[in-house]
Amino acid sequence: MKTVASQSAKGTSEKILQAAKWLFAQYGYHGVSVKKITEEAGANSALVSYHFGGKAQLYRKVLEQQAEKLLRLAEILKEPGQTPLACILAFLDEVKNVFLKEPESIHVIYREFLTPTAVGNDIVRQQMLAFYDRLTEAFDRAKDSQYVKAETDSRRTAFVLISIFAFYLVTYSYEAISESKRLPGADDSEKLRSVYLDYLNTISTGREQLQ
Q1: Residue 65 domain flag
Q2: Most-buried pick from 26, 33, 77, 129 (CB within 10 A)?
Q3: What pTM value is reported for the model?
Q4: What percent of the chain has pLDDT over 70?
Q5: Which of the 8 DSSP states describes residue 76?
Q6: Domain that holds residue 82
Q7: Phi and psi (nearest 5°) for 30?
Q8: How far does CA 48 lie from the centroid of its chain?
Q9: Cβ(193)–Cβ(161) below 8 Å
Q10: Buried b or exposed e, range 40-50, using 16+ CB within 10 angstroms
Q11: pLDDT tops 60 at residue 195
């Protein structure tokens, strides 16, 4: 019975987390009430306090989960047996996949980054800076091994690539890019990939051809 009860409680907390992630991504921390979250999750309002300690702690949990997801992707940047530039492209491809399949995961982080709250800004600043630093370090390795032009500024390059994703998120609705003829490609994935692939090829020494 305890096992069943434990699984049920875990299922309920997960539903609350998923509902909160989607709502916070759409409306921001201040635009979402506990009632709205639990209605979306099909749960009792009291369970937010029971499982998470309140709305603020729930918001922090959502941010922590999504930021950790991005940081785990950064492990690709040191993939054994791959060139530094190939690792960077593989990393960007995985970020793209998360971005397109679970846009709310990225959106909730960017929303907090762009309109910070006292509740969650410390998490996003710390984790996003770590994310940025790891990409910068990857470009340093690519320069050292002569896959990227020596005059390339690693920090600025990492900033540009992160900005490509931010621009897509802020400028387009999730469907609009599919209908746009401004970028080449058959679908969202190809269109978004074409942008960062072209940019990587402009800073590449030509030692490795990226496709």
Answers
A1: yes
A2: 77
A3: 0.83
A4: 87
A5: G
A6: 60-203
A7: -75, -15
A8: 25
A9: no
A10: bbebeeebbee
A11: yes
